[in-house]
TrEMBL record:
It comes from Clavelina lepadiformis. It comes from the Eukaryota. Residues 61-175 form the Telomerase activating protein Est1-like N-terminal domain. Keywords: Coiled coil, Nonsense-mediated mRNA decay. This is Uncharacterized protein. Residues 178-272 form the DNA/RNA-binding domain. It holds the Pfam family EST1. Residues 1-28 form a coiled coil.
Length: 279
């Protein structure tokens, strides 16, 4: 446990360094090398914690900090730079984003394989480390120092990797691959609502309002609901209810779907909109 505490202290120090370095995005490139070094070290420390003592790591929410501080914050910052049409460094930001997403995908594929091998979890669709030759070899963890966790914790952590592999694929606009990862994640731990929330995000992007509502509801109707799904569902239903009502007696299938969702929106949001059910 002392070694875990030491690793956690090191991680906290690295987090502060990353927070003070503006995600390595200074236009003149100053501090970028230090930022990359700190981020790589943080990834390795978190990986060691997850492999060495998974129960301890999950209790400290290491998996969330790993995603947010080592990957998500930088991805979001680069995405904002790419979207900013006034930014003269848009092309460079796009190149950096593409490379960073490749590295992020490789990291989580490698971590997933490490988890499966260390904790003897059988996931048929994982990529073995022997095929990830493009990855830099990370620090090895002595098997003798590993504390065997409970099986649900192993499955949850593997699901966590699958969800974020899906997120990374979605950021790369690889929609079919993203959906596959989310479905694999949902199949692995059906009682966790996060994969269903992510499937709803995909459905929303494609304009499928019925599937969007279904997956948000599915995300809430499980043993461990995803906290953001309620807010996301409310936003979707409010948007649908704000839309125009059909003006013809004969309505299309898509209008009927929206009509049905308006009815459910009235119930879920406890709003009154007389007339939407009178057709």
């Amino acid at each position: 446990m002392n070694s875990c505490n030491q690793l956690l202290e090191k991680a906290e120090s690295l987090k502060k360094e990353l927070s003070n370095s503006r995600n390595g995005l200074s236009s003149d490139g100053s501090g970028k090398g230090e930022w990359v070094s700190s981020r790589t070290s943080l990834q390795d420390v978190y990986r060691q914690l997850l492999i060495t003592n998974l129960e301890y790591a999950l209790d400290k929410k290491i998996e969330q900090d790993l995603w947010n501080f080592a990957f998500k914050n930088h991805i979001t910052a680069l995405q904002q730079q790419v979207k900013d049409k006034s930014n003269t460094y848009r092309a460079e930001a796009q190149s950096q984003l593409t490379s960073f997403l490749d590295a992020a995908s490789g990291f989580y594929l490698h971590l997933l394989d490490d988890l499966c091998q260390t904790f003897h979890v059988n996931i048929p669709y994982r990529v073995s480390s022997s095929k990830l030759i493009f990855l830099k070899e990370s620090a090895s963890v002595k098997r003798s120092s590993v504390t065997q966790p409970e099986r649900p914790s192993c499955q949850y952590m593997c699901q966590h990797c699958l969800v974020h592999l899906g997120d990374i694929a979605r950021y790369r606009n690889q929609i079919t691959q993203a959906e596959s990862y989310y479905r694999y994640a949902a199949h692995l731990v059906p009682s966790n609502g996060q994969p269903y929330n992510q499937l709803a995000i995909l459905a929303s992007a494609s304009g499928d309002v019925l599937s969007t509502a279904f997956y948000y509801c599915r995300s809430l109707a499980v043993k461990c609901p995803f906290p953001g799904s309620d807010t996301n569902l409310r936003k979707q239903l409010n948007k649908i209810m704000a839309g125009d009502d059909p003006r013809h007696t004969k309505i299309s299938t898509s209008e009927l779907v929206k009509f049905c969702l308006k009815f459910h929106g009235c119930i879920y949001l406890k709003k009154s909109k007389i007339g939407i059910c009178l057709y």
